[in-house]
């Protein structure tokens, strides 16, 4: 079944959730929203293109999930509570089945976080999904990149590098992104790439605790580098402290994982800084949001970022992040 | 000169304007904005794809202008005051010259309306521009599609159909969209397609005057049909009352124009309804915002929409609007 533009919009609209602060949702020239008093608005936009941000064979439901996840991850890094989003969907043709599967993945994640779709656009063109997500945070409470202080600890959530390992396995035709893997370790890795978990609850819990935060989308060191640049500080990362991947170990891929974990993108974990006095509070946060947090280094005065190995030497890294103009399509 | 993703963002960022309500602009995980107290938020998203929404030979500056214009037009139709926007730009390659020209057109219009770019995304892919524009309007003051009442007049701004005529002339290779036309009438038509004027001032002036409003993006009758459907009313449009095009007349194209004016899209005029008691007020509005307003029919009880010719007969129209899945690329 093929759809026209209006059939496609209707198919998506009927899935969207309700919120009391939506005065007018999809169906007018624009959405009309009632921001909460005393809150600031947090706005982010991220686009996923076929062949650049996901392999062509990625299931529609995974694309729907991930397109929203990367935006929720930005809200998480600001400590914001998700509220509304708009979706611009370019499709080469409008298959009802594809749209329904896309919507299934998209709304599965949207409903988890109470974010409502309030508008958007559907156009004909190569597959591309652009989402603008809006959240709210009390004035002065947002997490920013520019607050890191010398002496702060550097923390990271989860296990950055697993998504990059899954991507490498797909490129080597070891992992099929389009179906469930045969064993749980490979499936864990596949889901880290296909269905990243935005750390929304963690971001909210870090308000008043973290001094700076960023989400790990371009690579751990590249994104930590953004904190350093904006805060005017330097970072020492202890190679030995970087989280290990149990899944990589089970797949006998620890060496490959270790080569990727500081530089691979697409994990959507949070990297943040916090005073040493917050260590106990962060251990409690870890338990309450059920996300592993690892202390991986410290902030010092100066500029730049270095990785220090077990012997105290500085590790030289050839690639410190992911540039979307170099994309996976190459 | 070719750019990487970060060079491209920097090239756009340095052009963007300032606003006191931007707590954090481009450069963090998300923008942080301070909505004005008592205001509601108006949000719209529109995407333009090469070959679908504009010919491939369109100059970059015109693409930049138009991509923002179609979004400002939606804010205008809500009576909103533009505030902030985000830009997602997919480019097949990142040429510094192309980006500078795009930014020139984009910011020329942005600066006219005081809308600031607060974030976005640049990715590699076929040329596509997705913008989310945000505006503000006092609670309860937004223009909507659902307020038309039987007995209301139907009004339209400007001369819908001129953009459609320009598109037809381009398709017939009479008009070159990539350069200034030889005579002023053809140039007028070209600019109606390439540089539409969002009716932002008019939209704001219609608050408290119009009962319903829509922007003419898909075609006059198609968009008026949205008002009828949402308001639960019918519309009679007087064919004879539809605005004539002086430019079309100068080009000896009145017949072609008349065949298009009720159905062609892309004009970004406002179509709205208002009580007869507002006629004098609307003549004053017309003078104050310097946009022609034409009364083209009336709302009555019932459903549907008909065009009535000079003899009182009902005109049958074969095409009532523009479906983006049928696009100009076909």
Which chains share the greatest interface?
A: A-B, 73 and 73 residues
Structural class of chain A: alpha+beta
As residue ranges, the low-confidence spans of chain A are 318-330
Instruction: Determine the number of helices of chain A (DSSP H or I, runs of at least 4 residues).
Output: 10
CATH architecture annotation of the largest domain in chain A: Alpha-Beta Complex
The main sheet of chain A orders its strands as 8-10-7-11-9-12-13
Mean pLDDT of chain A: 91
Order of helices and strands of chain A: HEEEHEHEEEHHHEHEHHEHEEE
Annotated CATH homologous superfamily of the largest domain in chain A? PurM-like C-terminal domain
How many structural domains of chain A? 2
CATH class of the largest domain in chain A: Alpha Beta
Subunit organisation of the chains: homodimer
Amino- and carboxy-terminal Cα gap of chain A? 33 Å
**Helix fraction bin of chain A:** 25-40%
Looking at the structure, the CATH topology of the largest domain in chain A is Phosphoribosyl-aminoimidazole Synthetase, Chain A, domain 2
Q: What does the overall shape of chain A look like?
A: globular
- Give the total of beta strands of chain A: 13
Binding site for Mg(2+) 4 (chains A, B): 29, 44, 74
Function (chains A, B): Catalyzes the ATP-dependent phosphorylation of thiamine-monophosphate (TMP) to form thiamine-pyrophosphate (TPP), the active form of vitamin B1.
Pfam family, one (chains A, B): AIRS
EC number (chains A, B): 2.7.4.16
Brief synopsis:
With 330 residues, chain A is an alpha+beta fold. Chain A contains ten helices and 13 strands. Chain A has two domains: 5-138, PurM-like, N-terminal domain (60s Ribosomal Protein L30, Chain: A, 2-Layer Sandwich), CATH 3.30.1330; 153-315, Phosphoribosyl-aminoimidazole Synthetase, Chain A, domain 2.
């Amino acid at each position: 079944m093929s759809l026209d533009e209006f059939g496609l919009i209707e198919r998506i609209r009927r899935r969207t959730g309700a919120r009391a602060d939506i005065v007018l949702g999809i169906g007018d020239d624009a959405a009309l929203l009632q921001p909460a008093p005393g809150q600031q608005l947090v706005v982010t936009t991220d686009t996923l293109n076929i062949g650049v941000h996901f392999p062509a064979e990625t299931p529609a439901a995974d694309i729907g999930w991930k397109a929203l996840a990367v935006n929720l991850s930005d809200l998480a890094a600001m400590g914001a509570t998700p509220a509304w989003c708009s979706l611009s969907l370019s499709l080469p043709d409008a298959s009802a089945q594809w749209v329904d599967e896309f919507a299934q993945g998209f709304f599965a994640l949207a409903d988890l976080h109470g974010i409502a779709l309030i508008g958007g656009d559907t156009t004909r063109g190569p597959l591309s999904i652009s989402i603008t997500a809006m959240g709210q945070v009390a004035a002065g409470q947002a997490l920013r990149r520019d607050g890191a202080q010398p002496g702060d600890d550097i923390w990271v959530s989860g296990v950055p590098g697993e998504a990059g390992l899954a991507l490498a396995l797909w490129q080597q035709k070891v992992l099929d992104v389009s179906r469930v893997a045969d064993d749980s370790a490979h499936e864990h890795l596949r889901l880290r790439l296909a269905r990243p978990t935005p750390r929304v609850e963690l971001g909210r819990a870090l308000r008043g605790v973290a001094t700076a935060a960023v989400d790990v989308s371009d690579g751990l060191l590249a994104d930590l580098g953004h904190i350093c640049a904006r805060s005017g500080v330097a970072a020492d990362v202890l190679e030995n402290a970087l989280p290990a991947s149990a899944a990589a170990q089970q797949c006998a891929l620890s060496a490959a994982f270790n080569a990727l974990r500081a530089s691979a993108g697409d994990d959507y974990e949070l990297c943040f800084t916090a005073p040493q006095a917050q260590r106990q509070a962060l251990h409690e946060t870890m338990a309450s949001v059920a996300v592993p947090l690892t202390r991986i280094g410290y902030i010092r005065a100066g500029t730049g970022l270095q990785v220090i190995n077990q012997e105290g030497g500085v590790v030289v890294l050839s690639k410190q992040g992911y540039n979307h103009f170099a994309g996976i399509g190459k």
